[in-house]
Specification:
The structure holds three protein chains of three kinds.
Chain A (H helix, E strand, L loop, with lengths): L1 H29 L5 H42 L8 H39 L2 H7 L4 H39 L4 H11 L2 H28 L5 H32 L1
Helix pairs in contact in A: 1-5, 2-3, 2-5, 3-5, 3-6, 3-7, 3-8, 5-7, 7-8
Chain B lengths: L1 H27 L10 E7 L11 E4 L2 E12 L4 E9 L10 E6 L6 E6 L15 E2 L1 E3 L4 H14 L1
Parallel strand pairs in B: 1-7, 2-6, 5-8
Antiparallel strand pairs in B: 1-4, 2-3, 3-4, 5-6
Chain C lengths: L2 E12 L2 E12 L3 E5 L6 H8 L7 E6 L2 E2 L5 H8 L2 E4 L11 H12 L4 H14 L15 H12 L6 E5 L7 H18 L2 E6 L2 H7 L2 E6 L2 E6 L1 H6 L3 H8 L15 H5 L5
Parallel strand pairs in C: 3-8, 3-9, 6-7, 7-8
Antiparallel strand pairs in C: 1-2, 1-4, 4-5, 9-10
Classes of the chains: A mainly alpha, B alpha/beta, C alpha/beta.
Chain lengths: ~260, ~160, ~270
């Protein structure tokens, strides 16, 4: 019994220490004198790596998810003679939930794992140590531009995902299943609200961007510098980030739409 | 040069993001909910509000002019009391206006239909905090059917 | 002659495993100092202590007169500009070409124009014989070339002190010879101070001005190479001549073998 308590205690202490270290890492990376001339090109390069290289998977999945929503929604709604509501159904599910959440999950798998592996490898090959010995702070040089790029690109990806998804829903609903085109858009427009739906969705994706990038960087930075360590850190990034996204999504949804 | 290609792609990425945002903002969503701009508040009491909810629209001839902002029970007899936020743009409703709980389509959402009253020198305009007294309650299907059967039986 | 690096009575532990107990050594300015010892006694740790990446639990580390463990972040980063370290793996940045790797410290710490940086980089690459490899990526280099490229990067800012972490490990005889020569000639021509941490005795003793042997968590022998080779302390002899039996145990310390076999430890 006492041994069990000791284990619980040790786990809690370990976790708290981990969170503390992650916080320290984050503040070390994002606070401090910015040097725009040097860091902006780094930021742009990371936007390319994290944002542009994720575009394809985001656009393709957005299109397919939108099309599936159109198809499924139609078959359900047509039973009630309410196929006019297909537009808002597709748009609301994408903007409020699927856009931020699926983008977050895909981003964790596509960009987050790559971030962790890259930084973990930099640690394993002593590149981070070597930066430090060259009097260059790896937190500002390596972690900060990646953090900001992730933070910035994920909401954009989520918007692109939702837009493509809505278009996919339109293609299926209007082009294939024959929902009136005018009704599709106008009913959507009258029931989707800038503040309630669009803005809340964007806030969600910003929160997810923050969490995913942070987890990925932290896992990479603290990875055990061996091949097994890096592979487990990469897995752990995807698992932790995905679960955190889903958990936070529930909390955010409850806060935004629940009360 | 590698960095030039990178910059072009990042440019495309950001432009795509902005396009997506404007597409959603302009094509898919709208802010014409009358609750985003300036509003004023009106109250009304009903016998039965049916399935009216917060955020249900208030319409004049099908045009949304405001939204229900709160529903509560008030007074000794626990009458349903509805608070509405009406867009400040439409501030010329006379005190004789009437309000009814209507349904869009057979199975649709319920909303408040505002019927503007006549205007002459003897009646004032509705202002912030005023109540609309002329209200018609929601039709409850069961009661309707009951009345119908009852009247049939009387024949 | 002043000492560039002074370590006095250092105690250091990784978690619960004690690495150093009362280690002291000095590195005179302008000399090549070898630090030798069997594998796994924390020679890299020693260099990280000097570089301020790790802090000792007690003892003093002075580099260029500054007490390294007590330095605040900013002066520490200033001090690090005067030293550089050649990592065992080279630690080249894998996403940049050789040229950009060497140019990296210059671009980070100086305001030089790009054409001046180019001239310096070409000079440094010429010094290590890799001028022709400037456009290659680190992945395209052989181990020896990667280490020489890293060396070019290490001397890019003309540091006062270079620390070599196992520069000879895993090299073929030719590139080993090249690196030995490079360390010596860089030291003499640029007036550097060098610390070479290694277990390759013959190579390092041929160029070192002074040598330390570390074992059992502290310095067990020191002196000029000639003196050390004549030293007949058991541990020095064992290490310098590579004998399997001696004071340094072949086995990682554990319970008694016979007892363990008979199930002494569960």
């Amino acid at each position: 019994m006492i041994e069990w308590l000791r284990k619980v205690g040790a786990d809690v202490i370990d976790n708290l220490a981990g969170i503390g270290y992650a916080l320290a890492m984050l503040t070390g990376a994002i606070i401090g004198r910015p040097t725009p001339k040097k860091s902006f090109p780094l930021f742009v390069h990371q936007l390319y790596v994290l944002g542009v290289l994720s575009l394809l998977i985001i656009i393709v999945s957005g299109l397919f998810i939108g099309m599936v929503l159109g198809l499924q929604g139609y078959t359900i709604l047509v039973d009630y003679g309410a196929e006019q509501s297909l537009g808002p159904m597709v748009a609301l599910s994408l903007l409020r939930e699927l856009g931020p959440v699926v983008t977050g999950l895909l981003f964790a798998g596509r960009a987050g794992s790559a971030l962790t592996a890259e930084i973990g490898l930099m640690r394993a090959t002593e590149q981070l140590s070597s930066l430090e010995m060259m009097a260059v702070d790896p937190l500002r040089r390596v972690v900060a531009p990646r953090f900001w790029a992730g933070f910035f690109s994920m909401p954009l990806l989520a918007l692109i995902f939702s837009a493509v998804g809505i278009y996919g829903g339109y293609l299926v609903g209007s082009g294939w299943l024959g929902v009136d085109e005018g009704a599709f858009w106008s009913v959507m427009q009258s029931s989707v609200d800038w503040y309630d739906d669009l803005l809340n969705g964007i806030i969600k994706s910003i929160v997810f961007a923050f969490v995913v990038t942070w987890i990925a960087l932290y896992k990479g930075y603290t990875a055990t510098p061996t091949s097994a360590g890096i592979s487990s850190a990469t897995t752990s990034t995807v698992v932790t980030a995905s679960l955190t996204i889903l958990g936070l999504d529930f909390i955010l949804t409850a806060l935004m739409f629940g009360g | 040069m590698e960095s030039r290609k990178t910059q072009i792609w990042v440019g495309i990425f950001v432009v795509l993001g902005v396009l997506a945002l404007s597409f959603i903002a302009l094509r898919a969503a709208s802010g014409n909910t009358a609750t985003s701009g300036e509003t004023y508040t009106l109250y009304a009491k009903f016998d039965n509000i049916g399935s009216l909810k917060e955020r249900s629209p208030v319409k004049v001839g099908g045009v949304v002019v405001g939204r229900v902002s709160n529903i509560s029970l008030s007074g000794e007899y626990y009458e349903p009391k509805v608070e509405m936020k009406i867009s400040a743009e439409y501030d010329q409703f006379s005190e004789t206006s009437s309000l009814s709980v209507l349904t869009s389509g057979l199975l649709g959402e319920q909303y408040l239909g505002l019927q503007p009253g006549f205007i002459d020198d003897t009646v004032g305009m509705l202002e912030d905090g005023d109540s609309i007294s002329d209200t018609k309650s929601a039709l409850v299907l069961e009661q309707l059917i009951g009345q119908f059967l009852f009247s049939q039986g009387n024949d | 002659m002043s000492n560039f690096v002074e370590l006095n009575n250092i105690h250091f532990a990784h978690g619960t495993r004690s690495i150093y107990e009362g280690l002291s050594l000095t590195v005179p300015k302008g000399k090549v100092v070898a630090v030798m010892g069997p594998s796994g006694i924390g020679k890299t740790t020693l260099l990280k202590l000097i570089g301020g990446q790790l802090k000792p639990s007690s003892g003093s580390i002075k580099v260029a007169g500054a007490e390294v463990p007590k330095l605040a972040r900013k002066p520490l980063y200033e001090l690090r500009k005067q030293m550089s370290m050649l990592f065992q793996s080279g630690a080249l940045f894998t996403d940049m070409s050789v040229f950009d790797n060497v140019a990296f410290p210059l671009r980070e710490h100086t305001q030089l124009t790009e054409s001046l940086i180019r001239s310096i980089v070409i000079m440094k690459l010429e010094a290590v014989g890799l001028r022709g490899a400037r456009d290659l990526m680190p992945a395209e280099l052989s181990g020896g070339m990667a280490r020489r490229a890293a060396l070019a990067r290490a001397i890019a800012l003309d540091p006062e002190l270079i620390m070599y972490d196992e520069p000879f490990a895993g090299q073929d005889p030719i590139s080993m010879g090249v690196i030995v020569k490079l360390i010596k000639s860089l030291n003499d021509s640029l007036g550097l101070t060098s610390i070479v941490v290694t277990h390759d005795v013959d190579e390092v003793l041929s160029i070192a001005d002074y040598a330390y042997i570390i074992a059992e968590k502290r310095v067990v022998a020191e002196g000029e190479p000639k003196q050390l080779l004549k030293d007949d302390t058991a541990i020095v002899k064992q290490f310098l001549h590579g004998e399997a039996d001696g004071p340094v145990a072949f086995h990682y310390s554990d319970d008694d073998f016979a007892e363990d076999l008979l199930g002494g430890r569960q």
